[in-house]
TrEMBL record:
The keyword Chaperone does not apply. Residues 375-454 form the Apple domain. Residues 45-164 form the Bulb-type lectin domain. PANTHER family: BULB-TYPE LECTIN DOMAIN-CONTAINING PROTEIN, CURCULIN-LIKE (MANNOSE-BINDING) LECTIN FAMILY PROTEIN-RELATED. It holds the Pfam family B_lectin. It comes from the Eukaryota. SUPFAM superfamilies: alpha-D-mannose-specific plant lectins (SSF51110). Keywords: Disulfide bond, Glycoprotein, Lectin, Signal. InterPro entries: Bulb-type_lectin_dom, Bulb-type_lectin_dom_sf, Pan_app, SLSG/EP1. Residues 1-21 form the signal peptide. It comes from Camelina sativa (False flax). This is Epidermis-specific secreted glycoprotein EP1-like. The lineage of its organism: Eukaryota, Viridiplantae, Streptophyta, Embryophyta, Tracheophyta. The keyword Glycoprotein applies.
Length: 454
């Protein structure tokens, strides 16, 4: 072979290797966010617009799931997946947001280009969100029956999927993984969908819920000190497999995944029973097919599961699990349960602590100081008032703080810490817990005493 022919052969081979399947022209689209809003009731009292094209509108919906633009404030739209049927005339839920920290305006566009990239852009072309799948073999888009929005290749394999990018919600079969996206992040509020202060994080310490309003993350819930084998999946399974008769359904958390860990172990929370060599975490049991369910970290820090019951005549989304509840973890443990500074007893907000004693609770109840007015040091003094029999929501998750120590040493640490609003001292174990955030205070008839700055 001549040098010229050899060179041309190498060039042809190189060119062949770089050819990537493209999205067929009839599968591309460019949708403009404009027009009338929908009529039915949606979560957060949001306005919404249906996403569709005349040629392939079925790719944007499947079962109770459909792709939309929605907004809770004018001219700030989120690309999202909604769950529920309009004909139900029941509240429909938003279960996935693409761009909640980067909303778009009127006449923004959603485009799937020949190169396989799904792009959300302003009307002037400025890109606000994208899947970053240029030339990765994407040949189409579809929303599949479990609520997963996918970009697929010519063989149907997933190149990109919304299940790998959860926000505050896990749908049935969706996972958190330590090697990828390992957390859920709450919304700020019903009207503000941007990242809020609550997170649920999966790491080698377990699946832990945190609140961060002061620059420091404080644990307040979750399944700590447990091995989740690198992933946790929210799922719904039949109680009895391999039977044709009706069976109850169990809302569960699966540790690890079947493909990564064939000997997948499961654990139960409310009860534990062996299933062969496996053990399962069960959140709840229901007497109907709960396949369409989701687990959500709420803007108030709550963790709840909701299940779609199609045969109900109204309110088809039923709350089927609540982490902070009468049957699981005490409701007083939720930092926001009694507002910024409420005194909680057996799930009831019963008082508001003040330097003069406990007074009746109201939503206006707040700490005497919210900033670092008193930091100690020369010429300054820090005053405290005592609350006997009270526990901080963070205490159970940090083993009541540090120690053993003394009350005076604990006080000195809080004196010199401008972010410390008070401290909690366990007399039985002589442990000290500094509190940069107060929130709900839990009645503790044991030996825990709170000291609040004022």
């Amino acid at each position: 072979m001549s040098p010229l022919n050899f060179f041309l052969t190498l060039l042809l081979m190189s060119t062949t290797r770089t050819i990537v399947a493209q999205v067929p022209s009839n599968k591309t689209f460019k949708i403009i966010n404009q027009g009338e809003f929908g009529d039915y009731i949606t979560e957060y009292n949001a306005n919404y617009r249906i996403i569709h094209t005349e040629s392939q509108s079925n790719i944007f919906s499947s079962g109770p799931f459909q792709l939309f633009f929605y907004n809770t404030t004018p001219n700030a739209y989120i690309l999202a997946i909604r769950a529920g049927h309009p004909k139900d005339e029941s509240l429909m839920r938003w279960v996935w947001d693409a761009n909640r920290n980067n909303p778009v305006g009127e006449k923004s566009t959603l485009s799937l280009n020949r190169d396989g990239n799904l792009v959300l852009a302003e009307s002037n072309g400025r890109v606000k969100w994208q899947t970053n799948t240029v030339n990765k073999g994407v040949t189409g888009l579809r929303l599949i029956p479990n609520g997963n929005l996918v970009l697929h290749d010519k063989n149907g394999g997933f190149v990109w999927q919304s299940f790998d990018h959860p926000t505050d919600t896990l749908l049935t079969g969706q996972s958190l993984k330590t090697v990828r996206v390992n957390k859920l992040v709450s919304r700020k509020s019903d009207t503000d969908g941007s990242d809020g202060p609550y997170t649920m994080v999966l790491d080698n310490k377990g699946l832990t819920m945190y609140v961060n309003k002061t620059g420091k993350s404080l644990a307040y819930g979750g399944w700590t000190e447990r091995d989740f084998n690198g992933s946790v999946t929210f799922d719904v399974t039949r109680e009895i497999d391999n039977v044709t008769v009706p069976s109850a359904y169990e809302i569960v958390l699966k540790l690890g995944s079947a493909d990564e860990n064939p000997g997948n172990k499961r654990r139960r929370l409310l009860q534990v029973r062996k299933i062969g060599n496996a053990v399962t975490i069960i959140l709840n049991k229901i007497n109907y097919d709960g396949t369409t369910s989701f687990l959500r970290l709420g803007s108030d820090g709550s963790l709840k599961a909701f299940t779609y019951f199609e045969r109900a005549t109204y309110l088809k989304w039923e709350e089927t699990f609540a982490f902070f509840s009468t049957y699981f973890v005490r409701r007083c443990g939720l930092p926001s349960w009694c507002g910024e500074f409420g005194y909680c007893d057996d799930g009831m907000c019963v008082a508001c602590p003040t330097p003069k004693g406990l007074i009746g609770w109201s939503e206006k109840c707040s700490p005497p100081i919210k900033t670092t007015r008193f930091c100690g040091g020369k010429g300054k003094s820090v005053n405290y008032y005592k609350i006997v029999g009270v526990e901080h929501f963070n205490g159970p998750y940090v083993d009541d703080g540090e120690g053993p120590t003394t009350v005076s040493d604990c006080k000195k640490k809080c004196d010199g810490d401008c972010k410390c609003l008070g401290f909690f001292f366990k007399e039985k174990t002589n442990k000290c817990l500094l509190a940069p955030l107060l929130g709900t205070l839990i009645k503790d008839v044991k030996t825990s005493i709170g000291y609040m700055k004022y």
